Amino acid sequence: MGDAIIYWEVTTIDEVMIQIDSVRKVYKVGSEKVVALNSITLDIKRGEVCCFLGTSGSGKSTLLNLMAGLEKPTKGVIKIKDEAISKMNEKQLAKFRQQYIGFIFQSYNLIPTLTAVENVSLPLTFRRVHKHPREKEAKALLKAVGLKQHMHHKPTQMSGGQQQRVGIARAFVGTPSIIFADEPTGNLDSRTSEEVMNMMLKMVRDRQQTFVIVTHDQEIAKYADKVVYILDGNIEKIEEKTDDIRRYVHHEE
Ligand code: ADP
Ligand code: MG
Question: What architecture is domain 2-16+45-73+89-252?
């Protein structure tokens, strides 16, 4: 008596969330052509934590922007939940992004004139959520990222780590299926970056979200289920932590 009963529930998720098929991206700069991505083919599963690792200029941000529908590929197709986002028009894309995608930027990209609560609730404004439920969710998320005391601070009144937490809360608002992060710890010291990584991991695992991170930092790769090494616009190799994607959901009562 008195011992905790522990249940282990194994959930296998092998639904493809993001499908990248022969994607190429060439930028034209004057008369020069820059091949940012040569030919990328890859699937990312639902609930997977996938890290793209590569040096500066290898094409990581380009790929992330294509996956998030912020740019169009020169060739190839990107599907999210079986919908070809690479073929959508701006209006369809905006709606799709609002519904399914959260984005965390290296440079936080907060609106300087807005408080933490206002920044976090902004995506819900676009979804036409009313003020009260909007602020309620924003406040709950800010609490979850440890910013209970900073709800009404503006970006300049917060440290880098705190601003990044606001950026994280904003990406999670409305529980999008996919969270994209471009060098999310790039401006943070190593201790803060570990805290921020652990926090993001807990949030995506709790919500069974797909998490795609691009980084040049080897340390970040250790958090991922799958590490995709990018070199000169190509996939160099892929390392997977487990044979198949299994989630061990730990319940204690
Ligand atoms: P990473 O994020 O890995 O540092 P990027 O995806 O930003 O790499 O860039 C890949 C390559 O594409 C680089 O050579 C970069 O200069 C080029 N590039 C990226 N964006 C543009 C752009 N908007 N116009 C022209 N060249 C670009
Ligand atoms: Mg980049």
Answer: 3-Layer(aba) Sandwich (3.40)
